[in-house]
Design a protein that fits this description.
The protein has 9 helices and 6 strands. The chain is of the alpha/beta class. The protein has one domain: 3-Layer(aba) Sandwich (Rossmann fold), CATH 3.40.50.620. Bound molecules: adenosine-5'-triphosphate.
Amino acid sequence: MSVAIFGGTFNPVHNGHLRIAIELAELLGVDSLRMIPCALPAHREAPSASPEQRLEMLKLGIGEQSQLLADDIELCRDGPSYTIDTLRAIRAQIGDSTALYLCVGMDVLASLDSWRDWQQLTDYCHIVVSSRPGYQVPQSGALADWISARLCDDLPTLKQSSAGKLHLCNLTMLGISSTAIRHKISTGEKIDYLTPAAVVNCIQQQHLYE
Ligand code: ATP
């Protein structure tokens, strides 16, 4: 048994998120990957859709897919959503010996050193990074040193421990972003096939991002 989490604003969730989440669940061999919308992002302005609306869209987007799970753990806390708090809470639930994977895109890794207590993240989990066009592994500075001290190319080796390493992987990054979806809606363009039909319907019914 191991646990994988994939956080984001999911404003709104799209097929890029869902495809990578499925591939990560399969790569890591977890029964389910928990997708965790943040309540209040720590490093950007408040999203235009409420946390409840973003969670509802995430649940609709996941639909019947049993490998993915919408987890409201950050919505149940007040104040900014810090990943370190989420990791501590999950680690307390699952105990020390269960592997915990924090899945992020390369864009996120590049700014990891702006996160609260970032140097302690791998005390609680492994970090699994999927490449994203236009973003590179940081090459110099404290973050680059921190990454190279934890790098592990061999997934079976990483899976033998419950936390402490960082793995880079090449999975399918679809050229879709929430920003592009919100922009299309605001200019009256269709968003079909960028996100599941149930999410498109929800956005239309609630007049989100118009
Ligand atoms: P925005 O455009 O509002 O910044 P976003 O589309 O980048 O949003 P987020 O919710 O900020 O989505 O991202 C959550 C996680 O999903 C991050 O780890 C990010 O790297 C990853 N991600 C975002 N878009 C894609 C995509 N097209 N393919 C794979 N992963 C993605």
